């Protein structure tokens, strides 16, 4: 496993701040990276491989349990964290109704990628820029589509993405790894979709398909064949390129003067410590990164670091999951890969921004139905209703009889950003995730249209929607430190550097101006590689390294 740098002695006074570790040659770190998920680990790996000194700070453990099936149902924070799940419930006020669900997040070396289902899909071109007849909701990202495509290709190679090219996206994904044959059931489904006039392809996934592979969505992969950020980037950065990891270390604030971040303060085993980097990269996720900036108040930054525009934490987006079941006409074996089918035929329809469809790898057995119902209840019912959770198992067993051998699919419907959908601070518990979110009628209308289109497009097949209202995917949070050219309406610029600070960057899903209509993972990876190149060029040019503790402006 990854080498861990020992923290300073916990015998220090609780409120004392002691220096963090320094590179072997002395001086500051070139880059301090907060968070080790897809964004942080990828960026840190790229910079360490280029010869720069990199320190990773991670709230979770370096070693996590790799056989903790069902850990998402645990309540104990220690047990959850040991299995790489976020330990605590979040506070959510959705459409004015309060609830306290567990966020669908990972916590450990590798972040949420330890638990993700490894679907690594590109966004569409009009997710990033306006096209004739397809105007972009924000006017376009401050990043060129051609540039994103170059980094998408690098990201696909790095994360060993397997699949077949999307027939509707000519020229993209040509270098993907060849996946093994899908299960007999999924092959039949793909044939049925083609007969319905659709264009299915093998879903793009970061799965190595070692013997016994069960695709490991929602759990840490025991075979280490899922392309999580720890396996692909974090461990190689440490073992081969001299990067260092401080695990069990929660960053509590970023110190800064009026132009630059001057220190990163973290706690470990009850003691507080400070470490310095010529560049500081926040990659703690779209919940924690804005919360960290908001907590970093000072005389220079009374409203929170990099928050002169009052945009930090705003424009929170998720995705709306549209689940549906599809039955085969004839019984078929489900042995073999199951998370195999992608469809983009309804990505845009009738001028509406909808999204991709993919098989989830799940059949409609009682355990999967229970997981679905639990997630729905946690976000759409008040906390007092949790006492009814034991009854969900009974409902799940009844549903299994109804659905039988159906395969579960999901459409990932794009969400859009609104300033009052946001991450806020809990004054009583600074480490708690707190969100305020209102489902807009336009999202309800698009989700409802998606439901109708799924049924009409797949007419002739036995299809059943599994919900009647919007279900937010809390694991796809993004947009809370959005990138833009205008400092009054964004937090970071097109290079993902804070508008108001010379050496602070953001490399997680917070940067996204829009959520796109598919999984954000590959876009986070590609952007992290892009940002690493920008920081690397500044380091090579001597920017930020003139003297210990000093940063030279660009």
How would you portray this structure in words?
By secondary structure, the chain is α/β, with parallel strands linked by helices. The protein has one domain (31-364, 405-540): FAD/NAD(P)-binding domain (3-Layer(bba) Sandwich), CATH 3.50.50.60. It has helices spanning 38-49, 77-82, 125-128, 145-158, 184-195, 229-241, 288-295, 366-380, 391-403, 441-457, 521-540; strands at 17-19, 29-34, 54-57, 91-94, 97-99, 201-202, 244-246, 250-256, 261-268, 271-275, 277-282, 319-327, 341-343, 348-349, 352-353, 355-363, 407-414, 422-424, 434-437, 462-465, 504-506. The strands form five sheets. Strands 6-13-16-17-12-20 form a six-stranded antiparallel sheet, with helices on one face. A five-stranded parallel sheet has the order 7-3-2-11-21, with helices on one face. A four-stranded mixed sheet has the order 1-10-9-8. A hairpin with a 2-residue loop joins β9 and β10 (271-275). α1 (38-49) packs parallel to α6, α1 (38-49) runs parallel beside α11 (521-540) and α8 (366-380) crosses α9. The longest helix has 20 residues, at 521-540. The protein is globular and about 65 Å long. The two termini are 38 Å apart. Residues 1-16, 22-27, 393-397 and 546-554 have low confidence and may be disordered.
């Amino acid at each position: 496993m990854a080498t861990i740098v020992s923290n300073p002695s916990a015998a220090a006074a609780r409120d004392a701040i002691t220096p963090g570790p320094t590179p072997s040659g002395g001086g500051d770190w070139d880059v301090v990276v907060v968070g080790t998920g897809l964004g942080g680990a990828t960026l840190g790996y790229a910079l360490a491989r280029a010869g720069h000194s990199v320190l990773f700070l991670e709230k979770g453990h370096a070693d996590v349990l790799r056989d903790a099936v069902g850990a998402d149902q645990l309540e104990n924070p220690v047990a959850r964290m040991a299995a790489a799940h976020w330990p605590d419930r979040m506070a959510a006020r959705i459409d004015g109704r309060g609830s306290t669900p567990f966020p669908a997040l990972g916590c450990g070396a590798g972040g949420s990628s330890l638990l993700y289902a490894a679907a690594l899909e590109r966004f569409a071109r009009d997710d990033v820029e306006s096209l004739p007849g397809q105007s972009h909701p924000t006017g376009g990202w401050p990043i060129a589509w051609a540039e994103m495509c170059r980094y998408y290709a690098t990201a696909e190679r790095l994360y060993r993405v397997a699949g077949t090219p999307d027939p509707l996206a000519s020229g993209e994904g040509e270098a993907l790894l060849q996946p093994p044959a899908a299960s007999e059931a999924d092959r039949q489904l793909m044939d049925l979709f083609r007969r319905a006039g659709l264009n299915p392809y093998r879903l793009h996934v970061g799965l190595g398909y070692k013997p016994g592979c069960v695709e490991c969505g929602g759990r840490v992969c025991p075979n280490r064949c899922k392309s999580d950020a720890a396996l692909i980037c974090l461990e190689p950065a440490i073992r081969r390129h001299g990067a260092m990891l401080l695990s069990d270390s929660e960053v509590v604030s970023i110190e800064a003067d009026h132009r630059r971040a001057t220190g990163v303060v973290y706690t470990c085993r009850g003691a507080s410590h400070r470490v310095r980097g010529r560049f500081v990269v926040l990659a703690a996720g779209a919940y924690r990164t804005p919360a960290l900036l908001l907590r970093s108040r000072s005389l220079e930054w009374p409203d929170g670091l990099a928050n002169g525009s009052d945009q930090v934490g705003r424009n929170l987006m998720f995705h709306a999951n549209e689940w549906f079941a599809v039955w085969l006409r004839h019984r078929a074996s489900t042995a073999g890969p199951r998370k195999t089918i992608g469809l983009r035929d309804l990505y845009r329809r009738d001028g509406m921004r909808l999204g991709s469809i993919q098989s989830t790898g799940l059949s409609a057995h009682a355990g999967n139905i229970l997981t679905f119902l639990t997630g729905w209840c946690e976000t759409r019912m008040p906390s007092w209703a949790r006492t009814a959770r034991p009854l969900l198992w009974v409902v799940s067993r009844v549903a299994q009889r109804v659905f039988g051998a159906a395969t579960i699919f999901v459409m990932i419907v794009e969400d859009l950003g609104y300033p009052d959908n946001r991450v806020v601070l809990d004054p009583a518990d600074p480490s708690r995730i707190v969100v305020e979110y209102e489902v807009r009628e336009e999202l309800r209308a698009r989700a409802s249209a998606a439901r109708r289109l799924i049924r009409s497009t797949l007419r002739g097949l036995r299809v059943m929607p599994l919900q009647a209202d919007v279900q937010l995917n809390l694991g796809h949070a993004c947009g809370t430190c959005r990138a833009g050219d205008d400092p009054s309406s964004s937090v970071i610029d097109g290079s993902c550097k804070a508008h108001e600070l010379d050496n602070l960057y953001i490399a997680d899903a917070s940067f996204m101006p829009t959520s796109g209509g598919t999984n954000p993972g590959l876009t986070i990876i590609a952007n992290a590689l892009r940002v690493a190149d920008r920081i690397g060029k500044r380091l090579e040019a001597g920017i930020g390294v003139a003297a210990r503790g000093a940063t030279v402006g660009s």
